Amino acid sequence: METASSKTETTSYPATSAGARRAGMTEEQWRAAIKFDGNDVGWVIMSIGMAIGAGIVFLPVQVGLMGLWVFLLSSVIGYPAMYLFQRLFINTLAESPECKDYPSVITGYLGKNWGILLGALYFVMLVIWMFVYSTAITNDSASYLQTFGVTDGLLSENPFYGLILICALVAISSRGEQLLFKLSSFMVMTKLLVVAALGLSMIGMWHLYNVGALPPAGRLIKEAIITLPFTLTSILFIQTLSPMVISYRSRNQNREVARHKALRAMNIAFGVLFCTVFFYAISFTLAMGHDEAVKAYEQNISALAIAAKFFPGGWVTVVSVMLNIFAVMTAFFGVYLGFREATQGIVMNILQRMIPVEKSMKNGYKTAL
After folding, report:
1. Contacts of 142 (CB under 8 A, 6+ apart)
2. What stretch or stretches form a coiled coil here (predicted)?
């Protein structure tokens, strides 16, 4: 007769994963904590939306100018470097004792003085991008309204038009992450599908002679280094990483859970971007070659205009307008999230210098921000 003790000995338990051990959880608790949900989907979409800007339509022309071999070497160096840098950035934020905003993270590691200095630099960077995207949204929307006959003149010449437009976008952005996720989902998926469709549409025009000869080592390395900044920024979305990690830390008391979810969202976004953008650039390069890329560069035409030569029709105008508007708006939403938390961090750093932390929290300064 089998005893209770023998049953206990033969019962198999799932091995505890490394993440569960670091988090101090059982495997069941760990799997429940890291379950992929709508919030994860939202941050993946926001990251992809931040990376795919309006300039993506000029990427094939730039790759064609430099040559396929140069782009491949630049990609071998640049993409892994960008991935490791963004991974390090997430780990640094996730492991911070206090993770409420970027300046507070730096303060936790290096002190208040470095916190406000680096926080201010981070703030200035985001302010510049806020102005860039605000100007782009104002000018582009006014131009499209005039082009399609909605208005007689350019509304961008009226300062109140830009002010009202940006105030409306800020009001939408301030309503919270979930609203931004819902608004961005359609726009980001549209951008991603357009880029993927453009790459697929060129497969029928591929020619192996467009690969070109391998250039001399010295020239190859030199041009790869020149191309490197361009390659790095083609799938860069570091602007959304700080608000993403802070959001995960606020939702999860366990740092390891927040770190795991942030890294997973980054990995998915990076993987989708790499596969889509890399294939898109390679596909156009194999289809048009160096000479056509030079001609396109001189005429300042984009990948959409190049595709229109092979697939005539009025779809190019519609797609280009839609891609441009969606790219600028999703990028604005992503930058605004970082701008908001950077501003909050700097204000709190200054307040804590003048008022004790306990008193400032008691008086509700943090809530007011």
Report:
1. 151, 154, 155, 156, 157, 161
2. none
Give a yes or no: residue 224 inside a domain: yes
Q: Is residue 309 part of a domain?
A: yes
Phi-psi region of 356 (alpha: psi -120 to 50; beta: other; left: phi over 0): beta
Asked whether 201 and 311 are in contact (CB, 8 A), the reply is yes
CA 77 to chain centre: 20
- CA max distance for the chain: 93
User: In whole angstroms, what is the distance from residue 202 CA to residue 308 CA?
Assistant: 11
> In this structure, what CATH number is given to the domain that contains residue 79?
1.20.1740.10
Phi, psi values for residue 248, rounded to 5°: -65, -40
Angle, CA 336 vertex, CA 181 and CA 44 arms, to 5°: 35
Tokens coding 108: 């936790």
Q: Is residue 358 domain-resident?
A: yes
Domain that holds residue 336: 44-364
Mean pLDDT by 10 residues, the chain (369 residues): 43 65 86 90 89 76 86 92 92 81 75 78 84 83 79 83 87 78 85 86 85 88 87 84 88 88 95 92 85 78 70 69 80 81 78 64 46
Question: In this structure, is residue 36 part of a structural domain?
Answer: no
Among 99, 86, 49, smallest CA distance to 258 is for 99
User: How far from the centroid of its chain's Cα atoms is residue 257's Cα?
Assistant: 21
The rounded distance, in Å, linking the Cα atoms of 81 and 83 is 5
Q: What total of structural domains would you count in the chain?
A: 1
Q: Which position has the token pair 């993506």?
A: 56
Whether the CA torsion 284, 287, 290, 292 is positive or negative: it is: negative
